[in-house]
């Protein structure tokens, strides 16, 4: 783990280096976190401006703090800053500011945005790398609908997008995608918050997966510096919901673990079971290049990791929380569907009163233990 690189820019110098500014509001309870993104490259500024909703309905709330994200196109030596070559991000926790170097793509801008937000969040709030879904199960016999909010957490490649795609194609579920890749959650209340966005950043292959058998929508705003991703209109992609920002209370928390030494299985997450965070949840890319924990926030010290562990476990205690170990081979959609049905069906406590274990079969049916 590398030490943090810290640098401060005064207001005039910041405006000189990065003249384009995009502002967004992240709701956190009764207040907002104001996020100001200063951008050097005009093309990237156009992309970020097309993406963020600058004046969201929550903008009338008082501002708890202002976060600055400075996106610079060149390396530190281009700006005569006292930072060694090769540093990708520098942060100033006192000023709540992150400076990103060689930042030309929206995914790099995202990583800087998450880092800046993470160092500015109040103690019980934590950034989450994952998806937030509102799932409504409509029983054709019972006119009442069962609705719950599910958070899917895990490293890149663990299977979050596949589960979303399968729920989008499930005729018995109405799906609202509240956050597709990152959100903030309060460990005390279980309430999750996302930045209001007009358009969301997705890989083209993910969009094709979400579109199922139908034609994939055209990107509404390509990222000229990144041929694999573009901005897509959430309302066109998700017919029943979009990334409009706001808040939702998490009912079910699912942690996806792509790897695992044991046979693939599903287990209930307990406060004592912290190894799902400590061991294996770094993807190879983030561990080698970005110093991110699950792609959600910048982590430099053991204290920060301890805080994150405590917050995530606190959140797990107040939700129905599960670990899908070996998530690349588990049918996450089928497993989650079973868990949700057991929790919301006629015998809502059955999952707790009757611990069940279904062994992993050779034909691919999934192991489950509670």
TrEMBL record:
Superkingdom to which the source organism belongs: Bacteria
Location of region: Disordered: 346-370
Protein name per UniProt: Uncharacterized protein
Species in which this protein is naturally found: Planotetraspora silvatica
Lineage: Bacteria, Bacillati, Actinomycetota, Actinomycetes, Streptosporangiales
